[in-house]
Amino acid sequence: MNWSVHLPALVIAVPLLGAFAAPVAGLGGKPLRNLWFVAVSALTAILSIMLWRYIQIEGIAVYVLGGESWNLTLPSGLSWPIRIILEVDAFSAFMAVVGSIAALAGAFFSLRFMERFSGLDKFVSLYFLLTAGMLGMELTGDLFNFFVFLEIASVASFGLVAYWRDKPEAIEAGFKYMVVSTVAAMLILIAVGFFYGRYNAVNMAAVARMMRFGYAEKIALVFLVAALAMKCGTVPMHMWTPDAYTEAPAGVTCLLVAVSQASLYGLFRVCFSLYGTSLGSSVVPWTIIVMGVLSMFIGVTMAVIQKEIKRLMAYHSVSQIGYILLGLGVGLLALNDPQAMAEYGFTAMKGGIFHLINYTMYKGLLFLTAGALYYAAGTRNLNELGGLARVMPHTTFMFVIAAAAIAGLPPFNGFVSKLLIYESTFAVYPILAVAALVTSVLTLASFVKVFQTAFLGPEKSVFQHVKEVPATMLVGMSILTIVIIGLTLFPTWSLANLVEPAAKALVDQAGYISAVMGGGL
Q1: What is the pTM of this model?
Q2: For residues 149 and 30, what is the distance between their CA atoms, to the nearest angstrom?
Q3: d(CA 233, CA 212)
Q4: How far apart are CA 454 and CA 62, in angstroms?
């Protein structure tokens, strides 16, 4: 038997095994625990890349847990889709690669960053549970199991955000995130209940095939869009993002960025693969576009006035989510019009999806550099930092790479994805492109301020004995830096092999349904 067919399950099973075995590895002391932490994270990333390659060659993979067929045949002869199913197309495989790379970088960074604290066996377990929940959200083909994996990721996040439980701010951030996540999860569960009551099925492909866009489906759509927008930190439901991203350990924040993208993945899987052309009107696309514009503008304006470096970056996360929503919202707007899709819709989707990987890489790197500054200097307040480029040259170099990418400076990867979004949104409504351009200018101004203040300003006497962070932290930052440079140097390859297949898979609702359902139902 070709073991490659089991890759969808292995990508989720490996971090789950890592989570439950972490306390056992911890019995062997710090070296064994650290080896386990890095080895499992690296294996998860390798398996994700192998899965992406497998999908490139074989097409959509449908993996059934507990049987060879996803239809359970009862003694009466009735056959019905009831087993747990994983469905992996080019879009979900792409997301798994992005998330697992971010998780690997965060794991390397956390080896030394977290060594000053106790309870690291629990930290590793929660980190792997968060990784498994994120990957499960991206690979499942079942709405109820999407909810289950969302809850796994959320519960792990609560503990990790509030890991520094001696800090009141961390406890407050964890509680706020818990409240928001609980509300979002309940909305998703209610929506799943609507589908089950209507169609006696919760499999995405089965529901999509039987979809009749009535009142129940509209209510479920409102709940799903609201909940998933809340989980990915979209304005006006972004209230948890600045606190959670600021107070979580830097390696965890890097992973949380990827987890927010898993919720964004769920939003667009619902809109494109579940509802698709049955949406009919432009209400939902324009709702997503408006949320994107608000997220861009409010996020960047709040970031400009911040003095705490990690909080500044957290507000920029809200802003960058807006670009992705804008691109994919314009793509959804053109879904029912083949000519519009050819003219600007597909370009917008490519821009949004390319910006998704760009955002995860450079924003994860920025949070890691902020963690490096905190580790070395003991503060995250920009007013207390200065002249660190002289003593932390490697961290400075990687910060500059990430800052140039997020600002969209040519020729960096952020410029390519933003250019696609500018071009496509201008064709729909020019003011959208203007808003995106203004956001980029303010983003550049914000990071010039950070660079000047923290790295190029006058050297503070208190930092005379500060030195570069340890090697494993540099390795974690280097992983993301290498990806950013690779995407920058090879944009054509990235678009042709990573982005376009993902965009085509997202648009092809009929292909998604037929791959899963075959001749059933």
Answers
A1: 0.93
A2: 29
A3: 30
A4: 49
